[in-house]
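During the no-cost extension, the postdoctoral fellow (Dr. R.K.) reprocessed legacy sequence entries with the updated structure-token encoder. One reprocessed record is reproduced below for audit purposes.
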Amino acid sequence: MMATANETRRCSGLVAGIDVAKARLDATAGGAGVCSFANDAEGIAALLEWLAVRNVGLVVDEPTGGYEEPLVQSLRRAGVPVHLAHPNRVRAFAQASGQWAKTDRLDAQALSRYGEVFLSAQTPQTAPDGEEQDRERVQALLRRRRQLVDQRVQERNRLVRARNPAVRASAQRHIDWLDQEIAALDREYRESLESSGELARRAELYRSVPGIGELTAATLVADLPELGRGEGKGLCSLVGLAPWSKDSGRQRRSLGVYEVAAVGGAG
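Re-encoded structure tokens follow.
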């Protein structure tokens, strides 16, 4: 569906939410209905035209294991600001707004509302070559670090239980390698923070709070850019435990089936 001329004028500067699946993109803006596009070159081109008609000023989507990359790169080439939101925080925000069901179309609407509340006033920071890309780089490094830390915990547990000398030696070699990789990622995320003046300033501010160390400050900068934006009540909704029903991509599960996940999860 296409917006009328009056709708286009009324929708100037809209925040669009786009739910990304392997084969499909669900998009909405300004509280209007959800439109679906194929997640391929032709579909993304049609989506860009759809965004232009509505004069969308900011797109909000989520990391989805790489399925979002073609869309994100296309948006940036087109000069459309884009923000990759932490999925668990968007989910917590949706639930705080009374939306407990989870479908791709509802996710798109939640992303749009989330951007309107926390990000619309900060749109210039999502410029392709600006702070948003720096934040995404730190976020990716910290995500990888958490993955390796989890693996190291598993290997250490295996080492404790192992009795075979060859198995113990193998586990120890893997732990030593993980130690080196984690140390390398620590250096990389620190360098990335320091190279971005604004992110470094915010990290330093967080470290001034008693009990917040270097890693926690970097995580807040990377995974919770909403701090300092929006109202306190909305920000409080982004922390805690979030139960929800699962319905995404081609998976359809009955409502009322809930799983619990930490809102600040490793991702």
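The two ends are 34 Å apart (CA to CA). The longest strand covers residues 14-20. The remaining legacy entries will be reprocessed before the final report is submitted.
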